[in-house]
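Record type: ASSEMBLY
Status: queued
Input:
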Amino acid sequence: MVVYLRSGGKLRDRLKPDVDQYTRKFEIGGTPTLREILVAMDIPFALVAFGFSQGKVRRLDYRPSEGEVVTLQPPVAGG
Amino acid sequence: MYGYGGTIVRINLETGEIGRSPTPETFAREWLGARGFVAKTIYDEVPRDADPLGPENLFIIAPGVLTGSFAPCGSKVGFGCVSPLTNGHADSNMGGHLGPELKFAGYDMIVFERISPKPVYLFVDDDTIELRPAEQYWGMGSLDLEARMKKDLGEDFQIATIGPAGENGVAFACITHDFGRQAGRCGVGAVMGSKKIKAIAVRGTRSLPVHDLPGLTKHTYDIIQRTKTHPNMEPWQKYGTALFVSWANEHGCFPSRNFQTTVHEGWEGISGEKLAEEVLVTHKACFGCWMNCGKYSRARIPGKPDAYLEGPEYETIALCGGSCGMTDIHHVAYANYLCDNLGLDTMSGGNIVGFAMECFQRGIITQKDLEGHELRWGNIDDFEHFLRMIAARRGIGETFSHGTRAAAQKLGRGTIEFAEQAKGMEFSGYDTRWYSAQLLSYCTSDIGAHHNRSWAITADIELGQDTPVGKAPVVIYLQHIRPLFDTWPCCRLFWGELDVTPEEHAEAIKYLTGWAMTIEESMRVSEKIWNLTRAHYLERNGGPGRKHDVAPLRQLEERIPNGPAEGRKVGTENFEYMLNDYYANRGWDRDGNPTREVLELLGLKHAADNLEKRGLLGKPIPGGIPKVRGQKLKPKAM
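Status: finished
Output:
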């Protein structure tokens, strides 16, 4: 399946965007969870606080659907 | 001079005399504003033995070069003094609209000297500056007073207030503005109250003089267009920092029950999603911001009146929530409201109540101390009763009103071992036993434990959570770049979350002022301030520096009992390793004292001379100080 992942900041460096400045198209077999996708991309999942798509927070056990665009939100420095 | 209001005001509260002088351009360029203006003025003018709540302390309000611009989010203003919590330099910044209003009225700094014989409030309306009677307001809650003054003076005045806690000199009292923005930390509200200043009301109608307005407009417009569609904007706008609660629990840094452990049972009930579902009323933004990270909320608890507040954000959820054993977002929101209206920092307040709850758990304080009440984990009524005792400095509330360290020193019985603080100021909402760089950040901070000075959690993840190696240079870099946002000042969220670079902020200064100011020059100012406040702290508190950079025993040697970070602790040996590395990378000696070489390099010869006179100057470092002090985190190669 193909999933589109987006992020900014340091996570973007790890994503290596290839669609636009924030977005990476990633192809992976099966219907993995976000956590499994991050492992496949070699992104430490500790660097991702949660996913966000269609206006909702997605925990790392979320399974994106084919073609879904998911934003990866890094941990933030409180405030 | 472009980019600044143009005038510095000095007010002698004893005599009522109000003096004005032009802001020197050299002063503005050398110190930029807010934290910089405060550091320089406090260092030069406050006697080293001045009581923080006495007449010789100064109370300073200062915007800065980026305040009042859209460069972006130029909402911030700094408050400063000598802190009653740490007995060192204090600066605390606030968002909202007060800072820009002061700039538009034409002012770059207001310095209050001495103590007023009666309660007053500062009234500023462009050229008009008056000390007006405030007896009719004395005793009112912060939020209640702002609403009242908006009615009395008009909606177009920006108001900042203290609550009863500030009036009573509670060491962690804060200043509130815009119904929920605070200058929260360091006890700046207590110093404002010690001078009998109940409120500040400002209206400014002038334009800010800008060197290159078309350039600034285009620069800002480009940033707006880019950040509007940034992938991280939408979750920020929807949830604010509260969304971090889940991550912190899943990764072993959320404080539960006074940092006894790092995963909080029932955290889902106080998560960002719960906030959005149950208490959120609307979003709120500061001046010049389109992120709207503020969350205006309503807490509903049966038997209590509805409480409206801004928040709770991550820190309040962590400290008034997790650290006090709460699992209901309404209770956390209500606790936030109580702190705001009483005029107490939610971070220190939550931390201190959590500490007291553990004292109660251990039988060190009892119902007899608590006027017949208990202090149970997660109980909002117990929380409220005890918080009011602190705000009034009543009974045992008086002991806790001086902060966790002072309370532990008075209570004895080993309580200092679970008082989570550094230099007398309470930890922010992160347990550090699996995050040693964060512990180093807290313990070497000039104002005590505050994540705003350095948030190193990601550095710990990138560099390895179980090693002390490589952490110190990154902490130093963060201690320069993060407080730079308190110096300019402007909100750091656009940098931290939306990829607006520090270079772009420095470029905005160029358009505003006409100065060819690089980011390197700004960072140098920040490093200079860091060393100045270090010197100031040593001069006031004695040395060596190392004896003050101490960590709580719980963080060093008590293993986390459960959860994802089970078994972790930092360890004394690792901490000492990091301190040695930190001092070496700072150009300080092994005792933690700044050396003449680094101070003179930064233009602080007078600070070096002062330290030398007191026997506190760092010994020269063989081979010299590092050429570069601090290093940006480089993510590990994939």
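Annotation: The interface with chain A takes residues 230-232, 234-235, 238-241, 243-244, 246-248, 251, 272-273, 293, 313-315, 318, 428-430, 451-452, 455, 457-458, 461-462, 493, 496-499, 633, 635, 638 of chain B (CB under 8 Å).
Annotation: Residues 8 and 598 of chain B are 30 Å apart (CA to CA).
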